[in-house]
Amino acid sequence: MSVTIRDVAKQAGVGLATVSRVINNSPLVSAATREKVSRIIAELDYHPNPTARRLSLGKTLTIAVVTPFFTRPAFVERLRGIHTSLIDTDYDLVLYNVETTERRDAYMRSVPRRERVDGVLIVSLPPRNEDLISLANCPVPIVMIDANHPSLTMLHRIVINDVTGGQCATEHLIALGHQRVAYLSDTFETPFNFTASYDRYRGYRQALERAGLHYRPEYVVAGEHSHAVARQMALGLLRLPEPPTAIFAASDTQALGVLEAAQVLGLRVPEQLSVIGYDDIEVAEYLGLTTMRQQLFESGRRGVALLMEAIAGRHADPVCEEMPVTLVERRTTAPPA
Amino acid sequence: MSVTIRDVAKQAGVGLATVSRVINNSPLVSAATREKVSRIIAELDYHPNPTARRLSLGKTLTIAVVTPFFTRPAFVERLRGIHTSLIDTDYDLVLYNVETTERRDAYMRSVPRRERVDGVLIVSLPPRNEDLISLANCPVPIVMIDANHPSLTMLHRIVINDVTGGQCATEHLIALGHQRVAYLSDTFETPFNFTASYDRYRGYRQALERAGLHYRPEYVVAGEHSHAVARQMALGLLRLPEPPTAIFAASDTQALGVLEAAQVLGLRVPEQLSVIGYDDIEVAEYLGLTTMRQQLFESGRRGVALLMEAIAGRHADPVCEEMPVTLVERRTTAPPA
DNA sequence: AATGGGGGTGGAACCGCTTTCATTTTGGAA
DNA sequence: TTCCAAAATGAAAGCGGTTCCACCCCCATT
User: Fold this and answer.
1) How many A/B residue pairs have CB atoms within 8 Å?
2) Residue A151 above 80 pLDDT?
3) What is the CATH number that goes with domain B59-160+296-324?
4) Phi, psi angle pair for A326, to nearest 5°
5) B57 Cβ contacts chain C strand, under 7 Å
């Protein structure tokens, strides 16, 4: 059908091995031969068949990315980082979207197989404990990105320190002079075992403690991840006998709900209420929302770098890299009235 | 290294061919043999090597998706549709992100090759004219999703009729009683030759014409795709001696800019100004923005379906399928004061 | 009882590449 | 000029599947 290495060899009057050497830049070819073969390759518009190459090499030259797409910018940014790092390599990027726990479990078992891929990136998806052992013993290297979990120490991972992030956000508010700081997030228990909200909560607690501020249980609310629910929860907080003067929302989406609540109650932001979010999504800039920014793109890049190292056989022991989180100050936080 | 078909054959005391037949559900195996082989397969935890399979079959069992991710929800939705349709097939989804014209041109040449993939989905990316001919003559089936271009008639494609969409949006405003309707969009000329904005503009013109409304050039503005620029342009429109009573923004992002401009000028929406967007992105619902919704997820599904048909050899001639666009009425449009 | 046909089966070729290994060629030293 | 090590080369053996084809066996037909 299409032109093969045999055609090139015949046409150039050399053996298969020589053509293969030319393709793979082996030094064991004389300049003259190389030149001749290269010419024929160009003439015939020959492209080596990657499938045959993979089979012969015993490698798949393929990296799998397992992640819940969601409809969040964070996913795209991480994926961009991953893709960009893979451009200049031989590796293909094959994608596995997870939207149910069933699919997650199916992929956790079927994707990381020697015959399928050379490496796996699992993004924003903590595995079940049942899968942990098999993942840790898996012959193909695995790197987890953004899946911090106490029991993940046997896996390579790029973590985002949400505890520190939550602490930073809270400290920013405290530094502005706020004494009554509330925390609003999505539920701590989710089907996918996301720990971000809980970690940020822990950071919040730590910041309070360090500042010597009293922890008030009534200042911590959690509910479904949507601006509508966030608004209701924020209304609840702001109608307390002694309402908070600042609210730390565990995501920008929820911060939007808080802003909406403030508007409903006629509270001016930031004069009467400070609001800080988390993620730095696109509209955050538009709305002037102060927030915590993660290095999403960079986390993808680092993940690929680590995975490549693992594939190359470096790292006998699991490596854990931490990505920094930075405060982006905009117009929704200010000292209390 | 890992267990192969040969191991299974030996263990089961049958020939390779028989094991292969069992794997591929060939009817040419007796029930007894099938049962025995299946048991051994399970026992040895055998998984056929996809690479070897591909080489032998002469298929890559791989679909390429070439698309600019951007950081837009629209991308993720289309991709979700594509991925979902591929789950129950043998096909892998490999991803090619395009962020520069150089990459686009490189991918247009290197990706659609027999030895690489069985089919290609090109999403939201009109090819250059130079590439058109080679794409049309390409031995591997190609389906364009959301890349409407007059000269694309020789390629399979799923189109979103932006002319109709633009017309609908405009007609909605006219039906409400607006006589002075403006159109605000991103620039018609882009490095990637996107035609959406221009098509929507044409729809806008058509709607005006049908309603017998006078076209005013000063009511049409275009600039970079961002809410900030959109706000400036909207301010310009609203400060005209005879300002429009309704603005059709070519994207929700830009509609946000319009809303901001209205706020700056103290105009109440929708009482004093109607605004309609396009895309129905996530915040649109949050802000109650009236907008045009595309069937993004479904466009991905249809693209895969069409591609599979093309791979199967149906469709001697290029097929063009049109996806509907629907009006989502929310709280930013109303009859003029 | 001989014949024909069809279902079941296994051997072997093949997919297109890489790589080992044996062989030939080359270049420089003796 | 001879000789040897090093460089260059090609044949062939995989990689792990699929499938063609020849073969065997069994049963129904004549």
Assistant:
1) 100
2) no
3) 3.40.50.2300
4) -125, 150
5) no
Tokens at B169, concatenated: 């949006």
**Check whether domain B5-48 has CATH 1.10.260.40, yes or no:** yes
The Cα–Cα gap between A237 and A218 comes to 8
CB B303 within 8 A of CB B244: no
> Which residues touch B257 (CB under 8 Å, ≥6 apart)?
B226, B227, B228, B229, B230, B231, B232, B233, B234, B249
CATH assignment of A162-294, given 3.40.50.170, 3.90.226.10, 3.40.50.2300, 3.40.109.10? 3.40.50.2300
Can you give the distance from the CA of residue B295 to the C1' of nucleotide D9 in angstroms? 60
CB-based contact A76 B54, cutoff 8 Å: no
Cα–Cα distance between A138 and A64 in angstroms, integer? 14
Q: A58-160+296-324 belongs to which CATH class?
A: alpha beta
Domain with CATH 3.40.50.2300 in chain A: 58-160+296-324, 162-294
Q: What average pLDDT does range A83-87 have in this prediction?
A: 96
pLDDT in tens, B153-210: 889 999 999 999 999 999 999 999 999 999 999 998 888 888 889 999 999 999 999 9
Segments in chain B forming alpha helices (H): 5-12, 16-23, 31-44, 50-57, 73-86, 101-110, 129-136, 162-175, 196-210, 227-238, 252-265, 282-287, 296-311
Structure tokens at B188: 């018609």
CA(A10)–C1'(D20) in Å? 27
Chain B interface disruption, residue of A5, A23, A51, A256, most B CBs within 10 A: A51
Element (H, E) at A81: helix A73-86
Q: Percent of chain B, pLDDT > 90?
A: 74
Determine the average pLDDT of the residues in A192-202: 90
Q: Rounded to an integer, what distance in angstroms lies between the CA atom of residue B248 and that of residue B291?
A: 9
Strand D bases contacted by the protein (CB, 7 Å): 7-21
